[in-house]
Amino acid sequence: MKYRLLLVGNGTLTIDDFFAFLTGEFDFMTSSLREADIRAHVTMFQPNMIVYCMRNEHSDHIQMLASLKPEMKEDHIYLAVIGNDADCREFKKHAGKSADMMLYMPITAGIIRTELSQYLAFREEQIKQDRIRQENRRLEQEAYQKQLEEQIQARENGTEVPLQASASVTDSTGNSALDALMAYDALLNTSTAQKKLILVIDRDAQTLKFIKDQLHMNYDVATAISGNFAMKLMNSKKVDLILLNLEMPTENGATILSMIRSSEVTKSIPLVFMTSSTDRAKIQRALLLRPQGYLLKPLNAQKLTNTVNKLI
Predict the structure, then answer these.
(1) pTM above 0.85, yes or no
(2) Contacting residues for 188 by C-beta, under 8 A, at least 6 apart
């Protein structure tokens, strides 16, 4: 499979070298440095990489490319810069470390071929391994969730629970279903005079740990890795605030919010979305679901605390 490169910039000699010497390894398309043109070409061509062939570039163009980087990252589109020492310094001055790789002129077409091919192959393998890990984690967490729900159902039915069996599968934080079951029992047995309860619905171990570390002094914090388990907990215990990850692997936040809002028990609980997306359109669509707020990941400790204190 050939990698697709979108070539931009005033370095016409460098762009000519791509078409003269590198057509066997890559597919190319060129674009002007107008943002609308670049967006249109990205949508149509779906490049693996944008190659910025620099030659006396205007700072506005550099900053515009840098502003597209968050969206490019989400779509696994990388940014390479090719230019002389002065051009590369100018890019760093206005765009910081936005470039995924930087090649300094003078440079041969052969070196460009090798550097770009190796970098894209490395990234491709990295994405593949990430997807394998995510799928394995998803299967493990599904097994964990199934086992945990079976244990809770058995408790509710008054049947004996084989506790040791529930230690065989762990969640993303390393806790076993037995750990979660014991925490679930402890939570249900706490008195109503305890701290207000915040329920965090997320599968990300780092996020769960961060929230617990920040809030545990003033609030009780419970966690759920699925909508079903969250509903079971809320039907058994009064929850004062929900923090919900908008991008869950198997259930999106909108689906879980719909479950919460459709229940008489839970529909009035304040809810805050958490999202790692910086896409304004996605955030606006999320706000149409009328949560009481949203927090951007990685979470900021002060914003998290202020949001929680404001709502409960």
Answers:
(1) no
(2) 236, 237
Q: How far apart are CA 42 and CA 244, in angstroms?
A: 32
Q: Residues of 145-163 as b/e, b for ≥16 C-beta within 10 angstroms?
A: bebbeebbeeeeeeeebee
CA dist 150 and 122 (Å) reads 42
* Of 310, 294, 230, nearest in space to 266 by CA: 230
**Residue 85: inside a domain, yes or no?**
yes
| Domain extent at residue 102 | 3-107
> Which string of DSSP letters, residue by residue, matches 110-122?
HHHHHHHHHHHHH
Distance between CA atoms of 224 and 243, rounded to whole angstroms? Answer: 10
Domain boundary among 107, 122, 137: 107
* Residue that terminates a domain, selected from 47, 77, 107: 107
Please indicate, yes or no, if residue 30 is contained in any of the structural domains. yes
State the greatest distance between any 2 C-alpha atoms of the chain, in Å, as a whole number.
78
Q: What is the mean pLDDT of each run of 10 residues along the chain (312 residues)?
A: 94 94 92 95 95 96 94 92 96 95 95 96 93 81 68 62 46 50 53 77 86 92 86 89 85 85 92 85 78 91 95 90
* Distance in angstroms (rounded) separating the CA atoms of residues 241 and 312: 7
Could you tell me if 15 and 53 are in contact, meaning their C-beta atoms sit under 8 angstroms apart? yes
166, two tokens: 């529930």
Contact (Cβ atoms closer than 8 angstroms) between residue 218 and residue 246: no
Non-local CB neighbours of 38 within 8 Å, separated by 6+ positions: 6, 8, 31, 32, 50, 65, 68
Order of all β-strands in the sheet with 271-275: 220-224, 197-201, 241-245, 271-275, 293-296
